[in-house]
Every structure is written in C-alpha cells, then in structure tokens.
Amino acid sequence: MTWMRWAPAVERALYDQDGGFYRRPEGPAGHFRTSVHASPRFARAVARLLLEVDEALGRPEELALVDVGAGRGELLTGVLAELPGEVLARLRPYGVELAARPAGLPSTALWTTEPPRGVTGLLFANEWLDNVPLDVGEVDGDGVLRYQEVDTATGEERLGDPVSAADAAWAERWWPVGDPGDVVEFGAPRDAAWARAVAGLERGLAVAVDYGHTAGRRPQFGTFTGFRDGREVAPVPDGSCDVTAHVALDAVAVPGLHSLWTTQRAALRALGVSGGRPPLALASTDPAAYLRALGGAGEAAELTDPGGLGAFGWLVQAVRMSVPTSLEPLPGWQTLSS
Question: Where are the beta strands (DSSP E) in the chain?
Fold first, then answer.
C-alpha cells in the first residue's frame, strides 16, 4: 500500500508525465460528458458572451479568449466558428492545458500551461477548478481535525496528522466542522489557482463553471468521486480514472470584484439557450426544419436541466469593466469584500 494525503495523490494520478489521467490521448471526452461535448449551443452561448464582453470593453485592438482547462480545444474551436470576421481579426485565443497541443487546433490559438498575463477579454474555465488537487480533513472521535490519507492503489482512507494552522483557519472561515466524521475539502489551492488566473486579466470578465456549493450548503461528508468510460466510479487515485471534487465557489471568488453566483440554467437562458419545443405547425410546413429545431431544443434542455448540467454553478467576476448586457438582469450581483 502507498498512503498519501489526497492532494499529492490526485496530482500524481491526474497530471503525472507518465500515465496521468489527463495526459492520455483520448482526453476527457473519452470518459465523461461535459457541456462542451453535449451541444454546440454551449460554445455558441460562450461566443455570444465574448461578443458582449468585447462591446463592454469598447472593442479593444486585441481581444483575448482564454480557455482554462481547455481539454483538447473543443470549446476554443467551437467558439471561433461562431465569431464574425471582424472579431476574429482582433482575437487572440489561448488554450491553457497541461496536455500537449491537440491536432487541428486553429493556428491562431496559443497553447500554454499557464494563464496569460496582461490580457483584455474573456477568461472562461469550464470544469477546471474541480480538478485542482486539494487535501481533505475529517474530525476524529476526539474532535481533532485530521488529514485524510488515501491508499493510491485501492482508494481506502485512513486518518493521518492533525491539519496545519493554515488549513484549520481556512476551514473555520469557509467550511466549519465539529462533529466526529464531518469532512472538509480544503479549498485554498483552488482559491489561489483562480486568483492567479483572474490576475492575468488587465480588463475583462472571468467565468468559472463547475459543480459547486456555498456557505450553508456544504456537503457533510465531502464530494470526491471518479469517472471512467462514461460511468461514475470510486475515486481511486491510481491514474485509471478522473478524480474530482465540487468547488466552494464563494471561497474561490476574488474579493473586491463585481461578482455573481448563478446556475448554468439561468446563465445559458440569459445567453439565448432555450429548451422550448418548436411550434408543431412547423412539422407540416417544413418537416426537416422542425426536426432540426426539435434536436436543438433537446440539446438546450440537456444543457439547462436543473437535475444535470443546468445545476452547475457559474461564478462570474468583472475586472475593470461593466457587466455584460445579457447577465446584468440576473439577481445576485455584488461586490465582494476581503
């Protein structure tokens, strides 16, 4: 058996140069379905958001699209296909990903392992933060908060050392626990990763999309799970499956920015994605168009399903810019304090 704390175990399982899950040639799409893979309507909605960001920024000479956790470039490619030529002429697309640059990516796209600095535009992170490794703590029978350790071959867990002062302080601020068996997933590495990404925006909009939770709705026993070949499996950190945990979105948010938490359902509807069925009369006048519209409505319904992809959280933060027109009516905008 090899016992490790969760953060280094997940780091090795997902990102190791030799056999890490996210280094595999099939990429995430070979194992689980994200919004990007579910429908081109998702990329279309992101493209619309980018155009609104461009307008709010006054149509800068160079407009950035930063796709963090870009996988195999599916979202980048989809968004570029939706943009008018005038915007493409000013666009600098970035794919931020540890895996090698995928074949077929447009030549204008830059592929990098770190978010760029000093750019103006839209930074979009779809299902990235849930794969930033973190440690897990559990309250023992004496009320002491200790790190969980995991056997990297079997996924079996045991309690290890008491947590550090820094992790104890993070838990007290963001995820208080006290009863024996209570679990906390220490989100400081994700907070830092998001802060670094957002700091790269000179001006623009930063969006993180993930399964998440906020204060008062923390899961008592944690959220670690795994995915392999389209199925949810035990989170064994041996490189054979994805290992993921939900995101404490309120902790992640960078203080001092005009910010919004909303659901994917609300955000995509605001960006024009509707699951409404086409009028039945269209089936008589133009059957082919009716079938196309019906298929599109089914895709939109999947993206906005409140029991599925529509339940994702969207953390939206504006950096030295006004809120895009489509999102401005959504409730919940606030300026966060430190």
Answer: 3-5, 63-68, 91-96, 110-112, 119-126, 136-139, 145-151, 157-162, 183-185, 201-210, 212-213, 225-228, 231-233, 242-244, 247-248, 258-263, 313-319, 334-335
Rounded to whole angstroms, the Cα distance separating 12 from 236 reads: 12
Q: Is the pLDDT of residue 134 over 90?
A: yes
Label residue 10 by pLDDT band (50, 70, 90).
very high
- Please give the Cα distance from 196 to 60 (Å, whole number): 23
- In this structure, are strands 334-335 and 258-263 parallel, antiparallel, or unpaired? antiparallel
Cα–Cα distance for residue pair 257/260, rounded to 1 Å: 10
Find out whether 131 and 22 touch, Cβ atoms under 8 Å: yes
Beta strand 313-319 with 91-96 is: unpaired
Residues ≥6 apart with Cβ < 8 Å to 56: 205, 321, 322, 323, 324, 325
C-alpha distances (whole Å) from 150 to each of 1, 96, 212, 233, 253 are 9, 29, 23, 16, 29
pTM: 0.91
DSSP letter (8 states) at residue 22:
G
pLDDT by residue (tens digit) across 58-97? 999 999 999 999 998 999 999 999 999 999 999 999 999 9
Q: 145 near 138, Cβ under 8 Å? A: yes
In whole angstroms, how large is the CA radius of gyration of the chain?
Answer: 21
Alpha-carbon distance of 23 to 100, in angstroms, equals 8
**What is d(CA 18, CA 259) in angstroms, rounded to the nearest whole number?**
39
